[in-house]
Design a protein that fits this description.
Number of helices of chain A: 12
Radius of gyration of chain A: 22 Å
Order of helices and strands of chain B: EHEHEHEHHHHEEEEHHHEHHHHEE
Largest interface: A-B, 41 and 35 residues
Shape of chain B: globular
Number of strands of chain B: 11
Strand content of chain A: 25-35%
Number of strands of chain A: 21
Structural class of chain B: alpha/beta
Mean pLDDT of chain A: 95
Strand order of the largest sheet of chain B: 3-2-4-7-1-8-11-10-9
Low-confidence stretches of chain A: 459-464
Strand content of chain B: 15-25%
Distance between the termini of chain A: 17 Å
Largest sheet of chain A: 9 strands, mixed
Strand order of the largest sheet of chain A: 5-4-6-7-1-8-13-12-11
Shape of chain A: globular
Oligomer: heterodimer
Number of helices of chain B: 14
Distance between the termini of chain B: 26 Å
Helix content of chain A: 10-25%
Mean pLDDT of chain B: 96
Structural class of chain A: alpha+beta
C-alpha cells in the first residue's frame, strides 16, 4: 500500500483584515482575512516549518525531499537544500525544487507517489498582489508538507487510489519573472475552461477508482480561479456538505500550497475508510482519489490546521505593505547588515540551518564550539525567557527588535531575537519555541537562522 | 605563576587630552596631533625623545602608521592595539610594560577615535565576515537587561531603579558641566532624565554614553627617572586586564546582575597595589559608565558597595563630587563622551588632574589631600562577554 503517512502545515501568525485595504488603496479589499507571512518569512522558511511539523518526533526517515513554490527565494541554486539542512536529513537524501508555477506542487506530489521509499513533499507560497487588487486580498501565504510512503516505516493514513491528470495550454493568468504579481485574463474565460477540465478530471478519477461522486466523503477543489472551483464543486455530484472549505475567509488562496493545505485540512476532518478527492485546477487539472485507512484514527498532527487558524494575530495594512516591500518606510538610521559569508555559513551549516548545539543532550552549548565532538539538535526544544529587552536602536526590517535570553528545557542558553510577538505579551518566564526565519538579505544573499517565538500551540498529543 | 604587577616601577610624567565632542572640523590626524602635542608639552619632551609609541584605536585606523604619519615619527616603533572599548587602557598597559621591561626609557600611549565620520548615530563596529548567526543587538539593549534583572534580584521597585539610574546620569552631567573638555556641559535633573522616552529596554538616550570624537595620551618613564620630567608624577600601582570567554551569554547560571570579569580584574589590581579596603583607600574612581546600569554594577564589582546596595549608595550621594568616594568626577563616558580608543586614557587624564590638584576648583574631589590613590576602570563588550581593565595610580611612591 502506498499513500500519505504524515503531514504538517504552517500558516503564518498574522492575518490582514481585508476590510482595512480600501481605506488606503482606494478600492478592493472585501470581507474576512488573509494569512500574511511575517517580514522574516519566505517560502523556504515556511516550508521548513511545515516540514518540521510533518516530521518532528516521528520515526520517519525520508528518502527524498521535494520543494514546490511559485515564489522561490533563489533561482539557479536549489531552495530545498536549506530545508534539507534544517531537517538534518542524511546527505544521501536528494532534495529537489519544482519551481515557478502553482502546478509544480502537484508535479512534486505525483513524483512522490510514483517513486519508492519515503518522500517529503513541501509546497509553499507567498502571494503578493498590487495594492487594492484581487490578487492581494484573495491571496494567502502558507506552506504544507505531505509525507508519502508505504507501510514499511509507519502506517499509511490515506492510500492513493487514482490520479488522473489533464494538461491544457491556455493563458488565463501570467507573470513574467521579476514581476510583482500575476495578471489575469477576463475571469469568465478561466472559469469556463477550468470548470470543464475539472469535471472531466473528476469523472476520469472516479472511474479509475471505480466509485461514484456520492462515495466521496471529502471533495477538495484547489486552484487560483475561485469561480471555477465553486462551479466544479457545485456540478461535481458530491453533496455540498462534503465540499471542503477553501479557507478563503481566513487564509486566502496560498497558490502552490493550497492543494496540500486543503488536503491536510480534509484529512484532519476525515474518518477512517473514507474517500477524499483532491482536484487541482492549474494549467489543466489533476484529480487524485485517496482512501483513508484505519490508522488515521491514531494519527495526531503536530500542528493541526484548526489550531493555527485559531492562534492568529491581526496585522495592519500599512505594516503588511511595508513587510512586502510595497511601502518603503524609513529604515532605522543604522548601517544595514553585511552579507553573510558563504564559507562561514557552509562550515557552520548544522548550527545555522538545523540549530544543532554542541555537546551532549544534558549539557548543550549554543553555539557549538570546535571542541564539541557531538551535536545535539535543539530546534524542537522549548525554552523559557530569563530576561528580555526591546531594542529601538538596532537595524531591523520591522523595528523594534525584541530580544530575549532563553534557557532551554534540559539545559543550554541563547540570547536570541523573538518573532511573531507583541511587545506587550513578552514576559520573563514566558515559554518560547524555535522557528526558522530569514533574518535579513544583503547583496541578494538571504540570511537564514532561527528565532524564538511565544509558544502558543497545544503540546503534541501522541503519535501514530 | 602569578600576576605580580609592576607597582611603582613606572610613572606617568605627562598627559594631554583634547576636548571630546562632534569635531566636524577635525580628522583623526588632527586629533592625534592635538593630543600628542599637549602631552609632549606636559612632559617637556620632543617626539624624538620618546623611544616607542602605542596607538589605541578601535576602528579609526590600522597599524602604527596611523600615528607615525601625522606625527612624522622617524625610525620609531609604533604599535596599534585594539581591545574593544578598553583600547585606550590597553595602549597604556603595553607602553608601561615596555618601559618596565627595560626595553625603552620613554614611551607614549595615545588613544584616538573618530566616530562621527560614519554617518550614523551611536557606535558601529566594522563587520567581520561571519555565518550570519551572531547577535546584532545594540549595546544599549544588551546592557538594558541588567536593570530589571538587578531590580528583581534585590527587590528594588521599578520606580526606585529608574531614580537610581537617573541619579547616576544626573551626577555625571553635574560633573561634566564643570569640565571644559566634556561633550555635554549641561546639568540634567533626575526628573528630566526620568521623563525621557525609552529606546532600549527601559533606557533612554540619556542613559547612554555620549558618542564623541577625541584623543588622549600619556608619556611614561621609569619611576626613578620621573622627577627629571615633573615634580608630581603619577606612579603606576597596578594594571590588570581580564578578557572574558563569553560564557556568560551561554551559561544558564548567569543572571545579568554581575560582571565577573570586572570583579576578577579589580581583585588582581588591588592585590598588585596592596589595597585592602578600596572604599576607604581610593580617592576617586573613573569607571566605564557606558550605560547607567553599568555604573551601578561596577560599584559592587569594584568593592565600593556591598552586593545589592549600590543603588542605595547612588541615591545617597556616596559617589558625588563631594561624596565619600567621588566617581567619574570628569563626567564619565556619560557627559565627557566616549571616543572608544581614547576613553581609557581620558580616565587617567582626570586622575592626573585631580591627584595633582590641577582640576578646577568647582569640580575638585572631596578626598583631595586625605587620599592619594585613583582607580580607572575601562571595559569593552557586553554583560556575559566582556574585557575589563583596572588601573590604580598614586602620587606617592
Amino acid at each position: 500500500m502506498r499513500g500519505i503517512i504524515g503531514w504538517g502545515v504552517h500558516i503564518p501568525h498574522h492575518r490582514l483584515d481585508r476590510s482595512s485595504i480600501a481605506a488606503v488603496a482606494g478600492s478592493g479589499g472585501g470581507s474576512g482575512t488573509r494569512a500574511a507571512a511575517s517580514y522574516d518569512e519566505d517560502t523556504t522558511t515556511m516550508g521548513v516549518e511545515a516540514a518540521r511539523a510533518a516530521l518532528s518526533g516521528r520515526a520517519v526517515r525520508p528518502d527524498a525531499l521535494w520543494f514546490a513554490t511559485a515564489d522561490p527565494a533563489y533561482l539557479d541554486r536549489t531552495n530545498a537544500t536549506a530545508i534539507h539542512a534544517a531537517l538534518r536529513l542524511d546527505r544521501n537524501v536528494p532534495a529537489y525544487d519544482a519551481l515557478g508555477s502553482v502546478r509544480s506542487a502537484l508535479g512534486a506530489l505525483r513524483t512522490g507517489f510514483a517513486s519508492s521509499g519515503c518522500a517529503v513533499v513541501v509546497a509553499s507560497d507567498l502571494r503578493v498582489g498590487r495594492p487594492g487588487g484581487p490578487e492581494e486580498s484573495g491571496g494567502g501565504d502558507a506552506a504544507a508538507a505531505v509525507v508519502v510512503g508505504d507501510d514499511t516505516q509507519v502506517p499509511v493514513l490515506a492510500e492513493i487510489v487514482a490520479w488522473e491528470a489533464i494538461t491544457e495550454e491556455f493563458l488565463d493568468r501570467w507573470r513574467t519573472p521579476g514581476a510583482p504579481a500575476s495578471q489575469v485574463w477576463e475571469e469568465r474565460f478561466g472559469e469556463a475552461i477550468y470548470t470543464e477540465l475539472g469535471l472531466e478530471a473528476i469523472k476520469l478519477a472516479l472511474d479509475g477508482a471505480e466509485i461514484s461522486a456520492t462515495d466521496v466523503g471529502h471533495l477538495v477543489v484547489a486552484g487560483l480561479s475561485d469561480r471555477a472551483a465553486a462551479a466544479v464543486a457545485r456540478k461535481s455530484g458530491v453533496p455540498a456538505e462534503r465540499v471542503v472549505d477553501r479557507l478563503t475567509a481566513e487564509v486566502g488562496n496560498p497558490g502552490a500550497a493550497q492543494p496540500a493545505l486543503l488536503l491536510t485540512a480534509a484529512l484532519e476532518a476525515a474518518q477512517p475508510n473514507q474517500y477524499v478527492l483532491l482536484l487541482s485546477l492549474a494549467d489543466g487539472a489533476d484529480a487524485v482519489v485517496l482512501r483513508t485507512t484505519d490508522a488515521l484514527s491514531g494519527y495526531r498532527p503536530r500542528r493541526p490546521v484548526a489550531d493555527q487558524l485559531n492562534l492568529a494575530a491581526p496585522l495592519s495594512y500599512g505594516r503588511y505593505l511595508a513587510w512586502r516591500g510595497l511601502l518603503p518606510v524609513e529604515p532605522p538610521r543604522r548601517p544595514e547588515p553585511a552579507r553573510v559569508s558563504s564559507p562561514a555559513a557552509y562550515r557552520n551549516a548544522d548550527w545555522k540551518f538545523a540549530f544543532a548545539a554542541g555537546g551532549q543532550e544534558h549539557d548543550p552549548h549554543l553555539p557549538p564550539s570546535p571542541t564539541d565532538d557531538v551535536r545535539t539538535p535543539m530546534a524542537d526544544v522549548l525554552g523559557t525567557i530569563v530576561t528580555f529587552t526591546v531594542d529601538r536602536l538596532s537595524y531591523s526590517a520591522s523595528p523594534p527588535v525584541i530580544f530575549a535570553v532563553v534557557d532551554f528545557d534540559g539545559g543550554g542558553r541563547l540570547p536570541v531575537e523573538l518573532t511573531d510577538a507583541d511587545v506587550d505579551e513578552v514576559a520573563i518566564g514566558g515559554r518560547v519555541e524555535m522557528t526558522f526565519r530569514r533574518l535579513f538579505s544583503a547583496d541578494g544573499i538571504h540570511n537564514y537562522f532561527w528565532k524564538a517565538r511565544p509558544y502558543r500551540v497545544a503540546a503534541p498529543r501522541g503519535e501514530a | 605563576m602569578g600576576s605580580h604587577g609592576i607597582k611603582d616601577r613606572v610613572a606617568i610624567v605627562g598627559m594631554g587630552c583634547t576636548r571630546f565632542g562632534e569635531h566636524w572640523d577635525k580628522g583623526v590626524d588632527d586629533l592625534i596631533i592635538d593630543a600628542a602635542t599637549a602631552t609632549f608639552r606636559s612632559a617637556g619632551v620632543t617626539k624624538a625623545e620618546v623611544d616607542a609609541y602605542w596607538l589605541g584605536t578601535a576602528q579609526s585606523g590600522m597599524s602604527g602608521i596611523t600615528l607615525a604619519r601625522p606625527l612624522q615619527l622617524i625610525g620609531k616603533p609604533v604599535t596599534r592595539v585594539e581591545n574593544y572599548c578598553a583600547t585606550g587602557s590597553e595602549a597604556l598597559r603595553q607602553a608601561v610594560y615596555a618601559v618596565a621591561s627595560g626595553a625603552y626609557d620613554t614611551a607614549m600611549a595615545l588613544g584616538v577615535e573618530k566616530v562621527k565620520d560614519g554617518g550614523y548615530q551611536g557606535l558601529n563596529a566594522v563587520p567581520i565576515p561571519g555565518d550570519g548567526t551572531q547577535r546584532t543587538l545594540a549595546a544599549a539593549a544588551m546592557f538594558s537587561m541588567v536593570a530589571p534583572a538587578y531590580a528583581n534580584k534585590y527587590g528594588v521597585s521599578t520606580e526606585e531603579m529608574r531614580q537610581a539610574l537617573a541619579r547616576v546620569a544626573s551626577k555625571n552631567h553635574h560633573n561634566g558641566a564643570r569640565n571644559e573638555r566634556a561633550q555635554f556641559r549641561k546639568e540634567m535633573s533626575v526628573e528630566q532624565l526620568c521623563a525621557m522616552p525609552a529606546v532600549a529596554g527601559g533606557l533612554s538616550v540619556y542613559d547612554c554614553a555620549g558618542v564623541a570624537d577625541g584623543a588622549a595620551a600619556a608619556i611614561v618613564v621609569r619611576a626613578e627617572d620621573a622627577h627629571r620630567y615633573t615634580d608630581k608624577p603619577l606612579y603606576i600601582k597596578a594594571l590588570s586586564f581580564v578578557a572574558g570567554n563569553g560564557s556568560g551569554l551561554t551559561d544558564p547560571a548567569y543572571d545579568y546582575t554581575t560582571f565577573p570579569e570586572v570583579g576578577q580584574s579589580a581583585a588582581d589590581a588591588y592585590a598588585q597595589a596592596g589595597v585592602i579596603s578600596p572604599r576607604d583607600e581610593i580617592a576617586m574612581a573613573e569607571v566605564h559608565d557606558c550605560f547607567t546600569p553599568t555604573e551601578i554594577i561596577l560599584m559592587e564589582e569594584l568593592g565600593f558597595a556591598e552586593r545589592g546596595t549600590a543603588w542605595k549608595e547612588v541615591l545617597a550621594g556616596t559617589y558625588d563630587l563631594d561624596g565619600e568616594l567621588p566617581v567619574n568626577p570628569d563626567g564619565g563616558l556619560k557627559a565627557f563622551g566616549h571616543p572608544v580608543g581614547a576613553s581609557g586614557l581620558r580616565m587617567m587624564f582626570e586622575a592626573w588632574l585631580q591627584l595633582r590638584g590641577e582640576a578646577p576648583e568647582n569640580r575638585r574631589i572631596s578626598t583631595l589631600g586625605s587620599r592619594s590613590l585613583a582607580l580607572t576602570h575601562n571595559l569593552g563588550g557586553y554583560p556575559g562577554e566582556m574585557v575589563s581593565f583596572v588601573s590604580i595610580l598614586g602620587t606617592d611612591r
